[in-house]
Amino acid sequence: MTQPTDIRGEHLRAALSLAASGVPVLPLRAGKVPFGNCRRCADNACGGRPNMKSPGPCTCPAPCHSWAAATTNPHTINSPTWARAWSDAAAVAYHPGGAGLTVVDLDNPDAIAWASRTLPSTQTVATTRGEHWIYRGTMRSVNAVRDGVDIKSTMAYARWLGPGTGTMTALPDTVRALAVKETSTARPVSHAVAVPAGAGGGECQHRTPAYLDRGIAMAEQRITEARSAVHTTVYRTFLAVLSVHGRCGCLTEAHIARLFTAAQAKGESPRHCTDAWNNALTRLGL
Question: Which of 109, 129, 176, 267 has the most other CB atoms within 10 Å of its CB?
């Protein structure tokens, strides 16, 4: 159902204000779930996780929903595609990791009491059932680290519920330790990465290794400096590197590892990196 103009305008104004301050935003529909911004992703047709809370194997030119679509670009926020979403939006969401933030989502009074005893005070925002405690700094997002406690930072989104109260402080090791504890018993998964065979018999067609090293360094910088749409930036950067160096055989595992490391530092998982790399290979026919 289309929202009244004043509510729609309020959501849009809040989104533009957040974007202007460097916070990547996206519209949410009823149920706190993102919109699919193209027909391929409407009604979860792209295969995203339940309620489209995480991007699936989207084949669009760019991920068009969930945290990967969050942006600070006012032209995108005001675009005709997003205008249709704003007309039905129930809330504004933001990508905490893209803004250099971590949200500790406390879902019940017991969780709030635990945070009050355990965590340093910071900016606090009231939610429907509890509170968001917002810290400066990023980390991996993890659900259910304790009863009623989720961590939302990289590769996640949170509802914008206003500026809250208090002064934002640095992300404490106490919160980081919750994610480490949650993953301490997990077995590492090996992700094989295919390096395309060189059409030139392994000889770099660019004649000098410095050309390749400069290209990899520029690619790392492009990923590192991404403030929004990180998933898209990683894919497009992989695509650009492979389009130049993918057929001459000069790429090595060390070069690819540098790109993956830069992407994972921005919150991409090893699986997302591998998928983006393989999608780029497929796009180029390598």
Answer: 267
Count of Cβ atoms closer than 10 Å to residue 61 Cβ: 10
142, 164 in Cβ contact below 8 A? no
Rounded CA-CA distance 223/225 in Å is 6
Taking alpha carbons only, the member of 114, 122, 99, 190 closest to residue 145 is 114
- Identify the CATH class of 97-183: alpha beta
Domain limits, the chain: 5-93, 97-183, 209-284
Which runs of consecutive H residues, i.e. helices, occur in the chain? Answer: 5-20, 74-77, 80-88, 109-118, 173-183, 209-224, 230-245, 253-265, 270-284
Partners of 104 in the beta sheet? 133, 151
Contacts of 4 (CB under 8 A, 6+ apart): none
pTM of the model: 0.62
Report the candidate in 271, 270, 250, 249 with the shortest Cα–Cα distance to residue 261: 270
Contact yes or no for 131/125 (Cβ under 8 A): yes
For residues 221-236, average pLDDT:
86
Model confidence pLDDT, tens digit, residues 135-190: 999 888 888 899 999 999 987 899 999 999 999 999 998 998 887 644 433 333 33
Distance CA 190, CA 172 (A): 30
- 265 pLDDT band (50/70/90 cuts)? confident
Does residue 34 contact residue 69 with C-beta atoms inside 8 Å? yes
